[in-house]
Fold:
Amino acid sequence: MNDGSPARILLADDHALVRRGVRLILDNEPDLTVVAEASDGAEAVAQARAETPDLAILDIAMPRLTGLQAARELSRQMPDLRILILTMYDNEQYFFEALKAGASGYVLKSVADRDLVEACRAAVRGEPFLYPGAVNALIRNYLERVADGEDPSGRAITDREEEVLKLVAEGHSSKEIADLLVISVKTVERHRSNLLQKLGLRDRLELTRYAIRAGLIEP
Structure:
C-alpha cells in the first residue's frame, strides 16, 4: 500500500445484497478496492489464500465457518492480513471474541455508511478501529477487572519481579537486592530465574536490555 495503489479488500457476507451495498461504499473510494467476495467463512479463507488481499471484512453470522472462526483461521495462516468484523450485533461478547480472533476493528452494519471507510483505512495503517459503544465496553471491562483485583495490563511479570529486574539491571548483586527488598538471597535468585524463564531471556545483559525497553532504567 506504500506504493500508492489501493488497498485490496476481501468482502465476506452471506447476503448478496449486503455485499453489493458495502462494495458500492468501498469501490467509491480511490484508496480502497474490493478484489474478492465470499458468501461464507470457509469460502472467505479460500479466497484470502488465493487473492492475498490486504484486508478482509467478515460478517459474523455466516454458514460453514462463522466470521469469527474464519478470522481465527486467517490470523493463523496469514498473520499480515488485516481483519475487520462487520456485523449487526452490538454485542460485547462478540466484540471481545473478535479482538481475540485477531480482528483490528469492529463495525456495526447500521452505521457502515458512516464508519466503514474510516475503519478500513485505520486497519490498513495497522491501527484499531472501535465504534463508541465498543470503547465504553473496553473501559467498563478494564475497570471491572481492576475492581476484581486482576492485573488487566496482561503484564508477564509481577510487581516484585519488576523490582528485582530493575535492581539486577542496575548492576546490584543478589545479596544487595536481598538487603534492599528485605527478602532472602534464595528468593532473589528464584525471582531472577522466573524472570529469565517468563521473558525468554538468557542472562543479565538481556535482562538489562529488557529493563531499558520497559522504561525501568535509563540507557
About this structure: The chain has a mean pLDDT of 86. The two ends are 35 Å apart (CA to CA). Residues 6 and 31 are 4 Å apart (CA to CA).
